[in-house]
Structure formats: C-alpha cells, structure tokens
Amino acid sequence: MTDPLHNQAKEVLDGYVRRIQNLNAEIAASQEDRKSVYAEAKANGYDPKILKKVIADLERDKKDVADEQAIYHLYLRTLGWDLLA
Amino acid sequence: MTDPLHNQAKEVLDGYVRRIQNLNAEIAASQEDRKSVYAEAKANGYDPKILKKVIADLERDKKDVADEQAIYHLYLRTLGWDLLA
Amino acid sequence: MTDPLHNQAKEVLDGYVRRIQNLNAEIAASQEDRKSVYAEAKANGYDPKILKKVIADLERDKKDVADEQAIYHLYLRTLGWDLLA
Amino acid sequence: MTDPLHNQAKEVLDGYVRRIQNLNAEIAASQEDRKSVYAEAKANGYDPKILKKVIADLERDKKDVADEQAIYHLYLRTLGWDLLA
Question: Which segments does the entry list as coiled coil (chains A, B, C, D) (predicted)?
Fold first, then answer.
C-alpha cells in the first residue's frame, strides 16, 4: 500500500501537468492554424513577414507607428539611403 | 467611386488580417490561462521553471531523457560536481 | 590513485569548458559595450530600437529593404492606414 | 552646399552606426568561434546541448543546481518516471 501522502502529491502534480499539457496542445493547434493562414496568404502572393509586421503595428497606436516610420526613414536618409525617393 | 480592384484587394487582405488577429487573440488567451496555472502551482509550492522542464521532458522519449540526464551528471562529475552524491 | 582514463577525460572536457567559458565572457563583454553605445545614443536623443532596425537593414541589399518598405506601406494603405500621407 | 546641421547629424549617427557594426562583427566572430568549439567537441563524441547546459550550470551556485536537480527528479518520480533508478 503506497504512501497516501505520495498519492495526494501525485494527484495534485498530475492535475497541473494535465491542465498545462491541454493548454500547450490548444496553443500548438492555434499556432498551426495561424501558420496555414500565412501559408495561404503567401500562396496568394502576400509576404508573410511583412503581413506579420503590419498586423503587429495595427495593434499599436497609429501615431506611434507613424512617428517610428518617420524617424526610421530620417535616420536612413541621413545615412544616405532615401528609400522613399 | 473608389477603384474596384482596390476594394477587392482590401477585402482579401482584411480577411487574412482578421483571421490572424483572431488566432493571435486565441493564442494569447491560452497563454494567459497557462500562466495562471503556473502561478497557481507556484502559490502551492511548486517551482514553475522545473515544472515546465518536467512537462517538456514528459513529451519526449523516456529513454532519451534518461540518457541525457546520465550524460549530464557524468560531465558534471568529471568536472568535479557530483550532484547526486 | 585516481583512474588515468578519468583524468584524461577530465582534461579534455575541461579544455572545451574553458574555451567556451572564455568565448562566453568575450561575447558578454562585447554585448555590454554594445548596450552602452545604444545607451549613449539614447541619451543623445536617438531611439535605440529604430537605430537597431536601421543598422540591421544597412547590412541587407538596399533594393530588398526598399521593396519591403513599399509593400509594407501598400498593405497598410490598403487597410486604411496611410502613414506617409 | 549641403546643410551643415545635416552633416553634423550624419557624422554623429555614422559614429554610432560604425561602433555598433564593429561590435556586431566582434560578437558574430566570437559566436562563430564558439560554434566551432562545440562542433569540435561533438566530433569527439561530446553532446553539444548537454555541454551547453553543464557550462551554464557551472556559472551558477552549486547548491541551487543540486536543489533544482533534486526537485526535478522528485517531480518526475512522483509522476512515475524514476530516471535515476
């Protein structure tokens, strides 16, 4: 007859492990879905890396993104790269 | 009258953006849930970092994990650290 | 009298460990130096995050960076954000 | 005759860019050296991933590493994996 304390500890630990394993599986499944949306977009001529950057920036304050872009192009122009010319 | 081609492009791009934003939200929500399970385990005396490592190793082949542990302790012992003494 | 084989293994393993530790220290020192250059630039009004992006892009083919920027702004404009207006 | 202010800004920005580029190159070179030491160790039968973990743990307090290992094996044993049996 194993030690009741050990059984109780096993049950608690098992509980955390299973809940986290389920959430890991959920996250992995959603990440796979996301990967296939990017793959679909790519197949239709969209650039996944740029699309990801656009989606991230759309979550931010528009003025912050605009300011960041302005400073980025200012630095590049100062260094001799005028990408918007 | 805006350019129909532009509207069509907007619709397609909007579609990808919304689908990815929804999946991003799903992933973020599951990650938050996972964080709270680890926080709950921590509050009950479990070490989240070690729990995370155990859960990752439980997904692997048991023999691989055992071999890895044996080599890890062999290297440490060779270097003068016998953690299992 | 310890096992000669063990001594030899210890010597070899020690050798790798020391060489890697030295390289880790070198890398950490250069990363610290780099952090202080960014801190200096920040103190003089430059944005470290944008500076880092500019430096990364300067290492790339200028046309690729320009195309990427054009597509980025095209996507954003299509979605209703015209940052360059 | 270009704007002196612009020249001064270019010089300052150039200065930061060059210093960071040099440090990036230094870091990249040391990382390459480190990669070849791991490759050499691998060629002589050592496991790079475990070696990396050992080197990281040797930088820590020995008791902390020993406690962590003890808890790790306790959790695994509680869950039915006794790797040290």
Answer: 6-40
Q: Is A81 on the interface with C (CB under 8 A)?
A: yes
Instruction: Indicate the pLDDT class of residue B5, thresholds 50, 70 and 90.
Output: low
B10-18's contacts with Cβ under 8 Å and 24+ in sequence apart are B10/C78, B10/C79, B12/A44, B13/A46, B13/C75, B13/C78, B13/C79, B14/C79, B16/A37, B16/A40, B16/A41, B16/A46, B16/A51, B17/A51, B17/A54, B17/A55, B17/A58, B17/C79
For D76, name the nearest residue in chain B, comparing CA atoms only.
B54
Look up tokens 């020995």; give the residue: D62
Q: Please indicate, yes or no, if residue D17 is contained in any of the structural domains.
A: yes
Tell me the per-residue pLDDT of B56-75, one tens digit each, with 9 for 90 and over: 999 999 999 999 999 999 99
Closest partner CB to D54 (pick from B46, B51, B76): B76
C19 and C55 inside one domain: no
Interface contacts A/C by beta carbons within 8 Å = 50
Domain count, chain D: 1
Domain annotation covers residue B75: no
Are residues C25 and C62 part of one domain? no
In chain D, positions 41-60, which contact chain C (CB-CB < 8 Å)? 41, 44, 46, 51, 54-55, 58-59
- Interface residue D74 vs chain B (CB under 8 A): no
The answer to whether residue D83 is domain-embedded is: no
One domain, residues C56 and C18: no
- Say whether both C41 and C5 belong to one domain: yes
Q: Report how far apart the first and last C-alpha atoms of chain C are (Å, whole number).
A: 80
Query: How does A22-61 read in b/e, with b if 16+ C-beta sit within 10 Å?
Result: ebbebbeebeeebeebbeebeeeebbbebbebbbebbeee
Residue A70 placed within a domain: no
Residue from D33, D44, D53, D57 to probe the interface with C (highest C Cβ count within 10 Å): D33
C40 and C63 share a domain? no
- For residue D30, give its domain range: 4-46
